[in-house]
Amino acid sequence: MRGWSMAWKVLLGAAVVLVVVGAAVFVLAPVSFGYTGWYAYSPLSSSFAFDGMYPLTPGRVTGAALVVVGLLIAAGIAGWLLGRRSARV
């Protein structure tokens, strides 16, 4: 049983690291693929490309995925600890 007390602490630490690293990657990732310039007219009027307010570049997707995985691990550990504690009644 002693191994489990150390295992959840290590997993919780890894989850916190994943959330922090994922948030840093998300914030520091380039916002767009590149600047295309300003046009006074629509160069391709038949197509419409919306970059959105926060375009999802590969770096931002990776950062968001790391945050989600870290939060899922932390939520799983919290649920396991709460369930384990209530079973002692």
Q: What is the subunit organization of this protein?
A: single chain
Strand content: under 5%
Mean pLDDT over the residues? 79
Distance between the termini: 19 Å
User: How many helices does DSSP assign?
Assistant: 2
Q: What is the N-to-C succession of helices and strands?
A: HH
Outline the biggest β-sheet.
none
| Integer-rounded radius of gyration | 21 Å
Give the helix level as a range of percent.
Answer: 55-70%
Helix-and-strand structural type: mainly alpha
Shape: elongated
Instruction: List low-confidence stretches.
Output: none
**Total strands:** 0
Secondary-structure map:
Elements: H1 2-28, H2 58-86
Please tag this protein with its features:
about 90 residues, mainly alpha, 2 helices, about 65% helix
Please characterize this protein's 3D structure:
The protein is mostly helical. Helix content is 63%, strand content 0%. The longest helix has 29 residues, at 58-86. The chain is elongated and about 70 Å long.
Report a brief summary of the structure.
It is built from 2 helices and no strands. The chain has helices spanning 2-28, 58-86.
